[in-house]
Design goal:
The complex is a heterodimer of chains A (about 120) and B (about 120). With about 120 residues, chain A is mainly β. Chain A has no helices and eleven strands. In chain A, the strands form two sheets. In chain A, strands 2, 4, 5, 6, 9, 10 and 11 form a seven-stranded mixed sheet that branches. Chain A starts with a strand and ends with a strand. In chain A, about 35% of the residues are buried. In chain B, the strands form three sheets. In chain B, strands 2, 5, 6, 10, 11 and 12 form a six-stranded mixed sheet that branches. Classes of the chains: A mainly beta (about 120), B mainly beta (about 120).
Chain lengths: ~120, ~120
């Protein structure tokens, strides 16, 4: 079974630009979560999508948004980039059933975003 | 609110030594899950173990073992006979079990360096 894939792996943008990152979950997984990892703040939860709906959201400004498509692939968008948005963005997928106990999250390799 | 504390920022040990990584958590939930993830230099988070709050049995997997103690809210991770390949950043994480909430709250990580 193929793992979680994220594209692109590396990205360089300048302040004020916007960026879109993509995540393809493991086949059959319906939940996709996004995390931001920075040296200062560590790993922080951005949001989770399940069946094309945002089901959970972390404490990030509205410049951070996402969506999920019918095939469970997800994209996240950051508008008006700031220097502080430089980070490793990790995507994780799971079955997302919830009621049947915790569903394991499998992480992708991440997209390293650098904002100049 | 949930919180995970990994007080050890960096640890260095000589190869073949045993090493324990500490994790202390806070949660008001009575049902929750605890995790350890490994992050090698490539960046991808590799799942090591999951433990639910009702299962306090210690677990051993090869050179890895985990000690879960609800009384002290700790979930420590021991590597026996460490190897250079164990060098990585290790994260402890906590998750609620409410339906539709698979958000992981991570500790700040412990950077483990095994010296050959």
């Amino acid at each position: 079974k193929a793992g979680v894939t994220q594209t692109p792996r590396y990205l360089i943008k300048t302040r004020g630009q916007q960026v879109t990152l993509s995540c393809s979950p493991i086949s059959g997984h319906r939940s996709v979560s996004w995390y931001q990892q920075t040296p200062g703040q560590g790993l922080q939860f951005l949001f989770e999508y399940f069946s094309e709906t945002q089901r959970n959201k972390g404490n990030f400004p509205g410049r951070f948004s996402g969506r999920q498509f019918s095939n469970s692939r997800s994209e996240m968008n950051v508008s008006t980039l700031e220097l502080g948005d430089s980070a490793l963005y990790l995507c994780a997928s799971s079955l997302g059933r919830g009621r049947e106990g915790y569903n394991e999250q499998f992480f992708g390799p991440g997209t390293r975003l650098t904002v100049l | 609110a949930q919180k995970v504390t990994q007080a050890q920022t960096e640890i260095s040990v000589v190869e073949k030594e045993d090493v324990t990584l500490d994790c202390v958590y806070e949660t008001r939930d009575t049902t929750y899950y605890l995790f350890w993830y490994k992050q090698p230099p490539s960046g991808e988070l590799v799942f090591l173990i999951r433990r639910n709050s009702f299962d306090e049995q210690n677990e051993i997997s090869g050179r890895y073992s985990w000690n879960f103690q609800k009384s002290t809210s700790s979930f420590n991770f021991t590597i026996t006979a460490s190897q250079v390949v164990d060098s990585a950043v290790y994260f402890c994480a906590l998750s609620e079990t409410n339906f539709g909430n698979e958000k992981l709250t991570f500790g700040t990580g412990t950077r483990l360096t095994i010296i050959p």
